[in-house]
Design brief:
single chain, 158 residues, two-stranded antiparallel ribbon, 6 helices, 9 strands, globular
Length: 158
Amino acid sequence: MKITMARIDNRLLHGIVIAQYLPRSNCQRIMVIDDEVALDPKKKEMMMFAKPNGYAASIIPLQKAVENFKANKYEGQRIFILAKTPHVFLELVKAGVKIPELMIGATDRLNEGIKLSNRAFISEEEAEEYRQLRKLGVAIIVQHAPSVTPVDLFKIIH
């Protein structure tokens, strides 16, 4: 199993991700890890509807994702993970999932907290989770769209 791309995006699977990042990801499976969406049949159905043909998809809660990774359910697959918060990725890495780089796209929080870009703001608690991820070997960049030059998160926060 290989994580080909990992992204924080408040809209999860949507236009920029589908049209611009998915083709670059070289993945076979799109994995949306979000308790709210996974546990709401209507939201889950709408998210599955957005999935392009030719890709496997999983829309699952965090705990199920951790269990599946520990059980090697995705052995031999290339995976693009989408989630809304750094907490999801921190839990995955603590469970042994290798995430070489995490991209911060857009967040739910706007004009509140630490500004990373015009589309991404984080709380001090989230900044601490990013620091923990960095200590665990994850490179973290801020990049809303491929046309925007990626910026190392730790050039913005310390």
